[in-house]
Fold this protein.
Amino acid sequence: MYTNRVVFWSIIVALGGFLFGFETAVISGAEKTIQQLWSLSPFWQGFTVASSLIGTVIGSIIAGTPAQRYGRKKVLTVISILYLFSAIGCASTSIWLLFIVFRFIGGLAVGASSVVGPMYISEIAPAKIRGRLAGSFQLMIVTGIFVAYLTNFLFVGMGDAAWRWMLGIMVIPAGLFAILLRVIPESPRWLVLNNRDEEAKAVFLKTGEPDAVALIREEHELSKKGIKEHLFNGKYNKPILYAVILAMFNQLSGINAILYYAPRIFEMAGFSKEQAYLQPVYIGGANLFFTLLAMTVIDKFGRKALLLIGAVGMIIFLGLTAYAFKGSGGMGSNVLIYLIGFIAFFAFSQGAVIWVFISEIFPNSVRSQGGSLGSFTHWIMAAIISWTFPVIVEGSPNGGFYSFVFYSFMMLVSFIFIWKVMPETKGKSLEQIERTLVLH
């Protein structure tokens, strides 16, 4: 009963992840049409796609402060409204500058979601199922990506207005998210941090935490040591290092270049336009399946094991993709196979772990700041990768080859970092993790 209630609340909050994934991937279906509509150069096309990511960078930076001051639930509600506003604006405008503004607003929502969503779930979930519940946010992200690719394929034959349908359909899940958020409680750990112990106790009891009073007392003791401190005071160097480096490697895999430009990549590989819109559906399906698989084992195998397995697979399949772009003849089917292989290993590792890990390694008193830092790093790297990708592939005959060689090499470096440096957090309460990683 308790578990079902926590799962229900977590799924509602994870709807923000669905919108995150949808908003991230849906532009792949519209980006070439938009380039032709507004006669954009590769540079300005990259900027148009990356405008959302610029919003995510800012959203990830600013989300922590209001989440700490006003609570996780209120900020999530504002996020839902931003998603709604962005979908309506992007689908209806015919002015490039306004399109950029609405894409930017959607990016603000994505960046804030990536901080506050996993934060809320990690704070409400019991330790024994926290990995799976926090991972549900990533599961919803990849579900959103899959649905975006699917709707892009379904709408592609609707003529000149197809791109508006692709972007506007997000109004439906955004509205549902805004409505369902009304039924969730505030984060109990945020309530403790703001001396609302009775409310926190009531929520802890609803989540099935038998030691609610002890948890509240422990949170108060830990908060006394750090509530007035800033993140960059020397005590939190370890979690800062882990969050920043992991977030960088997440994007240095090239994942967002693939998600944002999937149809373009498949056209480069020799697929027809219609087939180029169908192939990403397979990519999205593999992403969803292997994320589901990772969610079933993340609390058993741990975060570190998944990351190591994934790094090996990504090194191989990114290298094979690079080789395919350098070669000729029969490249199309090979690229599809190699990218599905890459997506499978990414989903099983980096995709499943990143938001779980970042949401649990920072203490309660600075969790919002730490989550913002990790998310900021993730999105600034995503913006760089997504902005430069069309410039590189259109600026050189072997641009695709060089891009994927670079991504493969970065995954080799990530394997070494994960193996030698990163800690394991499975099965530990947030308070136990704090004692291990933070200098008191």
Notes: The two ends are 37 Å apart (CA to CA). The first helix runs from residue 2 to 37.
